[in-house]
């Protein structure tokens, strides 16, 4: 196997009395689509937030591309090629779609202490933004203010923003959350396409999508890794069935 | 998208024309008072515009902006007292000291957000006020009289009422143009992005606070310029110009005109100072009316005058 | 020796007054998420009421009690008429609206009582010096301030930590939704808390009145000190406000008293006498700056929301 692109060792994060990440170790190799699944409250978002630097771990290390990034602030990790989408859409709501994406491109195009020229007229930034928007199918909606976009379009825009930073590793936190059937299908098709170019870590509740897309799946329960294997092996894994599919069943009944 | 802004743009254009032609009216009608009043208004408009840069575009609610009015003014006053009368020295110093103060205060205050930020900027400005009051060599509480206005080697005579007015107006237009360029630049987009969603901006690779701080410093320097103008206008500078109610006045001008619109603060300054002037003709207790009016504006009229104009042209 | 003890007590007394002001501010902020700049106006009103009522009744104590009641009522009226419309609004809106109230109160006072300022004379029994330790005397009135403020602080502690109302207050500070879910009349609770804060500010104002003159704007400088205390102590925390208030009161008082002499030992006479007043007025702000660098969330932050 190739050297891992991302390597997490013995990561621990506590919130008060709760251990959200419990001595967690995992690896992501270049080119794979690595899914992380687990019941609600398994600590998936907390893990992603530690990987991108919004949350700092209590102990353990995170290495990205062979470099220790455990204590780096999120903006520096982004510059190294780590990008994320947020589970709860987090965009610049009063900016247009293309402005959102162009800013992401701008962040990776030298410094932004330029006070005079009109940034909206910088052709290469606009072109890059337009390309990312086209990529996710939002080409026609470039000029629309984010707050006027539908929920599905906002999810797609999240992805376009992440893409515009030209990441080596894309961390997607439930990109399909709240999407309808057609929108989900479009997102799956998009991810299928994207995975050819970029390594992806995918947190997702939609099992059909996960099993269709993933090369490997890591299963989290109470902040711990209980299994990490290829989809077929995970499907047959006893502990996973007990811990995870039981919960899934309960959720279905409530819902 | 553009046609919606027609009303606001028309108002802004009319406003500029009126400000440019004001000395003509003053000369023809022999009304000198109006020129004096509007010189003051133009200076405060510049200060309010600089506050708008951090408040409206940057989302930094500074309650200590009047400190720079005082610092710019004291830079001119102290240099004049020490025998340095040249504006070519006084003014760059005024800007530099204001920027430096903003750098220190900003670096500290930007460690916090929200109400904390409001309180801390307020407290630091008040510190500047007390320090000025303690400068016994430069008048202390009583303030410092400036016997000679800044000297620009004969290029312009600041003691001439009309020339001084146009000089202030040029500074205002220059300041507004600068702010307009900044707002649309790479830097400006980042600052506005941080106002909108700081976490997102960090996640795509921006060190948010660094941009905030630079924006804070630019605004401080522009307001320092307004302070230098104000000191020349009154031939006097005292701790009172940086008293915290002055900072409050500046905030009111920005909100009244409309945060985050280029000409909003100019409109706000005109309306607020004219209202104050008008009320003072009828009563010496202007606060009795101005205070509740302010409260009502906050409760009922959001977005200020520019917001109102925007709604009018849309509806 | 005498001077040191006297200044220490002065510092304690000033700190306790600051606490009364900061406690109301931090309670109102912690529970209603409301920034009230006009808190200093209530402090001023307390002093004006006391001076007026004491002159009417001829009794300092009676006048003070009436003033306390009047500030409480004024606070409740203010909350009822104006401020409750601003809950849940942007902090900036609250700041501006209450800034308007300050303008209003200052000119209202000028209209009613005139611009000159008032004096609140003390009764004879409060002006005598008391021997606190052999050979050291301290004004009875300042001792009384210390005693009253400590008693109020203790009472406040008991109310907040031990009673049902206090439980609601603490619940409100940590979880606003929960309190609503319990079916408690939130409007009434808010009005009461605001009234309590107003009364505390009024108490601070009327107790300070005999020491300084009663004048317009007297609440403004001290309000900013209260802000500094909240920043240092941690927002929404009564305990933090108490400790930070004593700290700030001490530093400010001792700084003004002893810094000039200290500086004179280091600097030349002229330089020291120029720098000392400026430096001693900067002292607490420098302290605040240090706290911001070391612990931006304050020294004693309230439990996380």
Automatic annotation (TrEMBL), chain A:
Function according to Swiss-Prot or TrEMBL: Involved in beta-(1-->2)glucan export. Transmembrane domains (TMD) form a pore in the inner membrane and the ATP-binding domain (NBD) is responsible for energy generation.
Protein name: ABC transporter ATP-binding protein
InterPro entries with a match to the protein in the record: AAA+_ATPase (IPR003593), ABC_AA/LPS_Transport (IPR051120), ABC_transporter-like_ATP-bd (IPR003439), BCA_ABC_TP_C (IPR032823), P-loop_NTPase (IPR027417)
Gene3D superfamilies per record: P-loop containing nucleotide triphosphate hydrolases
CDD domains in the record: ABC_Mj1267_LivG_branched
One function term, GO molecular function aspect: ATP binding
Short name of one Pfam family: ABC_tran
Organism for this UniProt entry: Bradyrhizobium jicamae
ABC transporter domain location: 6-247
Alphabetical keyword list: ATP-binding, Nucleotide-binding, Transport
TrEMBL record, chain B:
Transmembrane segments: 36-54, 66-83, 89-108, 115-132, 164-183, 211-230, 250-275, 287-309
Cellular location(s): Cell membrane
InterPro entries for the chain: ABC_transp_permease, LivM-like
Membrane topology: Multi-pass membrane protein
Coiled coil: none
KW Transmembrane helix (keyword) present: yes
Keywords, ordered alphabetically: Cell membrane, Membrane, Transmembrane, Transmembrane helix
Domain of life: Bacteria
Pfam family, one: BPD_transp_2
PANTHER family cross-referenced by the UniProt entry: ABC TRANSPORTER ATP-BINDING PROTEIN (PTHR30482:SF17), HIGH-AFFINITY BRANCHED-CHAIN AMINO ACID TRANSPORT SYSTEM PERMEASE (PTHR30482)
Protein name: Branched-chain amino acid ABC transporter permease
UniProtKB/TrEMBL annotation, chain C:
Pfam families the UniProt entry points to: BPD_transp_2 (PF02653)
Annotated organism of origin: Bradyrhizobium jicamae
Membrane-spanning segments: 12-35, 42-59, 65-83, 95-116, 136-160, 181-202, 222-248, 269-294
Domain of life assignment: Bacteria
CDD domains reported in the protein's UniProt record: TM_PBP1_LivH_like
UniProt membrane topology term: Multi-pass membrane protein
Family: Belongs to the binding-protein-dependent transport system permease family. LivHM subfamily.
Broad class of where this protein is predominantly found: membrane
Record's subcellular location: Cell membrane
Protein name, UniProt field: Branched-chain amino acid ABC transporter permease
Keyword Ubl conjugation applies: no
């Amino acid at each position: 196997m190739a050297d891992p692109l991302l390597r997490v060792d013995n990561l621990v994060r506590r919130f008060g009395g709760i251990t959200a990440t419990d001595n967690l170790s995992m690896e992501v190799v270049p080119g794979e689509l690595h899914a992380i699944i687990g019941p609600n409250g398994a600590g998936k978002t907390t893990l992603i937030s530690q990987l991108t630097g919004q949350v700092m771990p209590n102990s353990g290390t995170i290495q990205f591309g062979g470099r220790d990034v455990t204590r780096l602030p999120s903006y520096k990790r982004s510059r190294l090629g780590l990008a994320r989408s947020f589970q709860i859409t987090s965009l610049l709501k009063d900016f247009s779609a293309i402005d959102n994406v162009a800013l992401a491109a701008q962040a990776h195009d030298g410094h932004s202490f330029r006070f005079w020229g009109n940034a909206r007229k910088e052709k290469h930034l606009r072109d890059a933004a337009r390309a990312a928007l086209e990529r996710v199918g939002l080409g026609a909606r470039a000029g629309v203010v984010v707050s006027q976009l539908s929920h599905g379009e906002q999810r797609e825009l999240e992805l376009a923003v992440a893409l515009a930073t030209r990441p080596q590793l894309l961390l997607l936190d439930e990109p399909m959350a709240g999407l309808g059937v057609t929108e989900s299908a479009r997102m799956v098709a998009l991810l299928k396409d994207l995975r050819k170019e970029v390594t992806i870590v995918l947190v997702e509740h939609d099992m059909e999508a996960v099993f269709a897309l993933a090369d490997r799946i890591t299963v989290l329960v109470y902040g711990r890794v209980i299994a990490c294997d290829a989809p077929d092996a995970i499907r047959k894994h006893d502990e996973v069935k007990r811990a995870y599919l039981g919960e899934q069943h309960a959720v279905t009944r409530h819902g | 998208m553009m046609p919606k802004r027609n009303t606001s743009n028309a108002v802004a254009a009319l406003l500029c024309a009126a400000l440019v032609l004001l000395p003509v009216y003053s000369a023809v009608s022999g009304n000198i008072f109006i020129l004096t009043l509007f010189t003051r208004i133009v200076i405060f408009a510049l200060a309010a515009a600089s506050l708008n840069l951090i408040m409206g575009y940057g989302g930094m609610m500074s309650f200590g902006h009047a400190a720079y009015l005082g610092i710019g003014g004291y830079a001119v006053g102290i240099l004049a007292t020490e025998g340095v009368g040249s504006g070519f020295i006084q003014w760059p110093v005024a800007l530099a000291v204001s920027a430096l103060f903003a750098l220190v205060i900003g670096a500290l205050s930007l460690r916090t957000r929200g109400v904390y930020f409001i309180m801390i900027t307020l407290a630091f400005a008040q510190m500047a006020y007390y320090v000025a009051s303690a400068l016994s060599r430069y008048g202390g509480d009583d303030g410092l009289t400036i016997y000679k206005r800044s000297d620009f080697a004969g290029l312009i005579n600041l003691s001439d009422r009309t020339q001084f007015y146009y000089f202030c107006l040029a500074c205002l237009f220059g300041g507004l143009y600068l702010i307009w360029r900044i707002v649309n630049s790479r830097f400006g987009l980042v600052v506005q992005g941080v106002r909108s969603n700081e976490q997102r901006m960090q996640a795509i690779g921006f060190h948010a606070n660094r941009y905030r701080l630079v924006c804070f410093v630019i605004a401080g320097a522009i307001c320092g310029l307004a302070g230098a103008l104000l000191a020349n206008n009154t031939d006097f500078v005292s701790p009172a110009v940086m008293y915290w109610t002055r900072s409050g006045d500046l905030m009111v001008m920005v909100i009244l005109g409309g945060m985050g619109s280029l000409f909003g603060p100019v409109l706000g300054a005109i309306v607020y100072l004219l209202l104050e002037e008008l009320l003072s003709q009828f009563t010496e207790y202007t606060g009795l009316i101005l205070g509740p009016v302010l409260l009502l504006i906050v409760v009922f009229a959001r977005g200020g005058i520019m917001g109102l104009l925007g709604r009018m042209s849309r509806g | 020796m005498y001077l040191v003890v006297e200044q220490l007590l002065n510092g304690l007394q000033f700190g306790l007054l600051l606490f009364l002001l900061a406690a109301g501010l931090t309670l109102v902020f912690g529970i209603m998420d409301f920034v009230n700049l006009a808190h200093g106006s209530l402090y001023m009103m307390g002093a004006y009421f006391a001076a007026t009522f004491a002159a009417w009744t001829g009794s300092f104590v009676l006048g003070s009690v009436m003033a306390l009641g009047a500030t409480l009522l004024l606070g409740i009226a203010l909350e009822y008429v104006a401020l409750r419309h601003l809950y849940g609004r942007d902090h900036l809106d609250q700041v501006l609206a209450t800034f308007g109230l300050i303008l209003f109160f200052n000119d209202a006072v000028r209209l009613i009582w005139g611009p000159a300022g008032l004096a609140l004379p003390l009764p004879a029994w409060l002006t005598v010096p008391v021997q606190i330790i052999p050979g050291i005397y301290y004004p009875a009135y300042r001792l009384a301030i210390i005693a009253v403020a400590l008693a109020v602080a203790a009472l406040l502690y008991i109310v907040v930590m031990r009673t049902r109302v206090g439980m609601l207050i603490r619940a409100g500070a940590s979880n606003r939704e929960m309190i609503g879910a319990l079916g408690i009349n939130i409007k009434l609770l808010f009005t009461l808390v605001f009234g309590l804060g107003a009364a505390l500010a009024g108490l601070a104002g009327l107790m300070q009145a005999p020491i300084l003159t009663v004048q317009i704007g007297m609440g403004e400088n001290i309000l900013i000190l209260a802000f500094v205390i909240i920043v240092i102590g941690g927002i929404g925390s009564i305990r933090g406000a108490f400790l930070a208030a004593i700290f700030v009161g001490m530093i400010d008082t001792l700084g003004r008293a002893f810094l000039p002499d200290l500086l004179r030992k280091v600097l030349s006479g002229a330089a020291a006498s120029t720098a000392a007043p400026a430096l001693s007025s900067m002292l607490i702000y420098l302290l605040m700056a240090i706290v911001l660098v070391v612990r931006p969330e304050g020294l004693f932050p309230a439990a996380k929301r």
